[in-house]
Amino acid sequence: MAYKVTGIRFNQYLKELEKEYLIFAPVALLGKGAFTNTDSVRYQKITKLEEVELTIKANFSAKEILLPITETLFYFNEDNWTEPKVHDKKILLFLRSCDIHGIKRLDDIYLRNGCEDPYYKVFRKKVRFCLIECYESFANCFCASMGTNITDEYDMFIRPEGDYVYVGINNKEMGRLDEKVVDLSPRFVMQNKTKVSIPKELSKGLAQSVFWEEYSSRCIGCGRCSFVCPTCSCFSMQDIFYKENKNMGERRRVWSSCMVDGFTDMAGGHSFRKKQGDRMRFRVMHKFHDYKKRFGYHMCVGCGRCDDACPEYISIAHCANRLKSIVEEK
Amino acid sequence: MDINTKILKKNAFRITKERYKTAIRIRVPGGEMAAKYLDTVKYVAETFGNGTIHITTRQGFEIPGIDIEKMAEVNAIIQSLIDGLEVNQTDSNAGYSAAGTRNVAACIGSRVCQFANFDTSAFAQRIEKVIFPNDYHVKIALTGCPNDCIKARMNDFGIIGMNEPQYDSYRCIGCQACVKACEKKSAGALKFENFKVVRHSDKCIGCGECVLKCPTGAWTRSSNKLYQLVIMGRTGRKNPRIAQPFIKWIDEASVLEIIKNTYAYVHNYIDKDAPGGKEHVGYIVDRTGYQVFKNWVLKDVILNPKAQVAEYIYW
Amino acid sequence: MSNTYLPFKSRIIKIIPHTAIDYTFLMEYKGDVKPGQFFEVSIPKFGEAPISVSEIGEGYVGLTIRRVGLVTNTIHELQEGGVLFLRGPYGNGFNIDLFKSKEVIVAAGGTGLAPVKGVVDYFADNVHEVTVFSLIAGFKSPKDILYKADFEKWQRTINVIVTVDGSDDETYTGNTGLITNYIQDISIENQSMANVIVVGPPVMIRFTVAEFLKRGIREENIWVSYERKMCCGVGKCGHCKIDDTYICLEGPVFNYVKAKSFID
Ligand SMILES: Cc1cc2nc3c(=O)[nH]c(=O)nc-3n(C[C@H](O)[C@H](O)[C@H](O)COP(=O)(O)OP(=O)(O)OC[C@H]3O[C@@H](n4cnc5c(N)ncnc54)[C@H](O)[C@@H]3O)c2cc1C
Ligand code: SF4
Ligand code: SF4
Ligand code: FES
Question: Locate the 4Fe-4S ferredoxin-type domain: which residues (chain A) (predicted)?
Fold first, then answer.
């Protein structure tokens, strides 16, 4: 079911929701791109529809709302600790189909890979999804290949059209708008220019293939591919003490990436996957093989952000397709 | 033939080796123009010149082999180019109104280059608008970052783009890519403490390397565009030298004011007995000393609060 | 909901120095734990380190900790009666029952002995539960030998070979040479049935396993324990993953049939 409301009415609706929700959506931050006079689209708190960037793909995914980049696990003083307070509001998240699928992947790691992660769970229970429709596929998207172009796991969706907004409600919790009711379901992208086919048998033999060596000379190990990825979920722990009072401090976790130096460093100078080619192999196998073995579907959701972001023009889509042709040649 | 060479030179033509022939210099402020104006340059070279074009160090075109008699015709033809590039003029259809103040040059800048901290050509064009035409000999160049590809430090005024990086510690994952890059390629202004980055602003040269390197966007650019103004660099026979920092973290409005004031300073202090009545601004500063120059050009200028003026300069 | 990342306080009952850099800390602990499992041990404000359980007793566990960096250095400065923060135990550990009524050989290199020490302790005390139990332990030099008192005790019930890579200590009268040299000579009663546990640095594991395979030990009877960088210990942080395996969840103890296919 959907309502047709004016933009003004929709913003009122958001205002009503704000009593119960923190609303996060992709926002174009002017001049905050890496290069001069470029923007960066990131998740920010919003209060009005006009603030939301709906026309281009967000540079960073929605994952940081559930998995903050820096997250305090607890504070400690002399010999005790306290957990940080979490706000008691729910979270309404504006995101696209691929990103909803991405969060499903995070759920697998944080709720089903071993015990539940208490911090993630707190946020996850609060989150409601407002689907942003994709009319046309963006550059590098291959969601249709990954089967993530369609979803029904949204609580509401919107379709702004001129001065009006169509608002589809899929969950009673999201309330109602006493406006004209129309029959409407969300539109999804059904194909992309980039098509990826993943070989069924990504065997271990392939893992040792010379194929990966090329990436040792190309990849600079910056980690951009991981940090923009909606499904990359790794973190590192940090303990710090405050400069002002050395008896007080906190333990926190921050995002980390298997592409970046230090990920496997152990005492005594041991480390694994020293070459970037090996790291590329590890990441690609994780996205297209290892994870599927555990959870039954691929980890990669085909949002194409890694391909958007790589300064060295390394494309995971191209890599997967090359693997496919190698497997088929055999 | 009777010709006033002073007027000819002021009109951006030159007296050449070959008698009765001249060459014209086409200004391209900021080194950037629509490709269609090349047609005019080509036409002049092929119709009036010897069919060749020389690309000058100051990012103009010099078209040689023109009959001195044809100057007026050439001036009429290049009017569309002068209009198109929005070069100020005293009299229409009379060509360039001055030659002393040279074309304002710029590196390719942020329209293309990843490193550039500002749109160099656009700023160059704004400067050109303020200072041209003028007979005083002043050279200005703008460069997007401290790499200084345009060699702004060889100019009377070099404007180097700076970016005061903004740090969001929440977004920092501690990869230290910025710290390493700053150490290796720049000023070594970043230190890693307690898993986050500390910037020593006194060392920072505002190159923007940290912003470029950060994979999470923890470092971003300031919306406030600032510059380093370096002064009185020069090549030439007498004491060639590199420009020295005059003001760091200065904003555009202040740069424009200072350049304008410099013309008044030159007007007041120029050696009236200098050969040809020409004295290069750098030599005037040598005569008056930096403090006199500084007081003149900063008169009535309300510098932006971040600006840091050098107390002394020793070239 | 309990928060798995929150540590609990544990008092240091006793500190047993073995070498200049390896101490065993006997820590108050009541609860289930198996040899080969590990705790995330921390000192707030300094950090956490995964440490294997080297000893299991009534109301306590032993942690043998080598000082190699920030956290372990700080731990070494603590005194008896002091407090460490623990969470865990994590990992699968060794299944003692699996080795019962069998011939068991343990080959351990350096601090690799720590995770398997609980197994040795158990069978040295209950030697009738195995047919034969042999331990080959290798250390860099005489001054790196751990658990000297335990070795004396073990010697009474099980076969023990201690060797050092090299020695410039003239008073040392024991064996020298790599562990692998001793595997060639060790008596194995039933090659196809004997169970072997190999723990130690990655290179040591590789060569030692190869030696045992040469002696006719079956791959499925070989057990190894892996160390990897670990931040969470509970399958979230991703650091410990090799191929599709999370060492903290499915390991650190692996059957060699699985472990041999790991590609780092
Ligand atoms: C399952 C397991 C069991 C272990 N059992 C023992 C044991 O019984 N006794 C023992 O002395 N040591 C053991 N270790 C190794 C021990 O965890 C590291 O030596 C310790 O984490 C180093 O911490 P540090 O702060 O003192 O050193 P740091 O100052 O952190 O760093 C020294 C080096 O250790 C690396 N390192 C940091 N954290 C870890 C980590 N979590 N895992 C591996 N390397 C790390 C660093 O990257 C660095 O290269 C075990 C490791 C694992 C994974
Ligand atoms: S973004 Fe590109 S260069 Fe950076 S780590 Fe990923 S693949 Fe390598
Ligand atoms: S590059 Fe970015 S993420 Fe890495 S240390 Fe610097 S600020 Fe932090
Ligand atoms: S230690 Fe974090 S996933 Fe294994």
Answer: 208-240, 291-319
